[in-house]
Design brief:
The structure is a single chain. This protein is mainly alpha-helical and 209 residues long. Helix content is 76%, strand content 0%. The chain is built from seven helices and no strands. It is globular. The model has no long low-confidence stretch (mean pLDDT 84).
Length: 209
């Protein structure tokens, strides 16, 4: 595929990530679980805040994967990133649907999250495949921990959101393993700390906005 064609496709992905309309290729987890109207108001609002954070995480994931895929040197790495990005698109669609069910909205700051993450992905891609893949692996590890914490924070009766988050967590683990298997190098500790700080800022902001 020509570079210009790839840019057009990535632009379409960016629009769907920021403006909504993501399409999932897999069935949404928890389809038989309790609906949102069976949750108390406080629980529904709390679930919505957490799922909005998760949606922002998937917006960022799309930006990172698209940027890194554009700069990947090897075709097999481009394919691996593309496969992972498609599963992340499933997550994006699931979170968007769940937010609507909860009577809430996606983050109003999605364009900022996407642009910032795309820039970070470009930097990671320019560093070379092994560091780019190492960045993917560390990102997925932190996301896995973040989703694990949400399984403890989500209301116990919100089985539908919990099913979505649990499937997302399993997918993120596999994405991290794939990046390491493809040759990813562990990142230096200072970079990991910076990533954690940025993630904390995003999480606190996206919960409400």
């Amino acid at each position: 595929m020509a570079f210009v064609d790839r840019l057009i496709m990535e632009f379409d992905t960016a629009l769907r990530s920021m403006a909504g309309g993501a399409h999932a290729h897999r069935p949404m987890p928890g389809s038989n679980a309790y609906s949102a109207d069976q949750l108390e108001t406080a629980d529904r609002e709390h679930s919505a805040g957490l799922m909005r954070v998760n949606h922002v995480g998937e917006v960022c994931a799309q930006a990172l994967y698209q940027a890194q895929k554009l700069l990947a040197r090897r075709g097999e790495i481009q394919q691996m990133l593309s496969d992972s990005a498609q599963e992340e698109m499933d997550h994006l669609a699931w979170c968007e649907i769940r937010l609507k069910e909860l009577g809430s909205h996606t983050s109003y700051l999605n364009p900022i999250w996407y642009a910032g993450s795309f820039a970070i992905g470009i930097v990671a891609g320019l560093a070379g495949d092994k560091w780019s893949l190492g960045f993917v692996a560390e990102t997925e590890k932190q996301v896995e921990n973040h989703l694990e914490s949400h399984l403890h924070k989500l209301p116990q009766q919100d089985h539908r959101s919990r099913a979505i988050v649990d499937q997302m967590r399993e997918d993120e683990i596999e994405h991290g393993r794939a990046a390491i298997s493809a040759g990813g190098e562990p990142l230096p500790e200072p970079i990991k700390k910076i990533m954690q700080a940025v993630s904390t800022l995003m999480t606190k902001t996206a919960y409400r906005i």
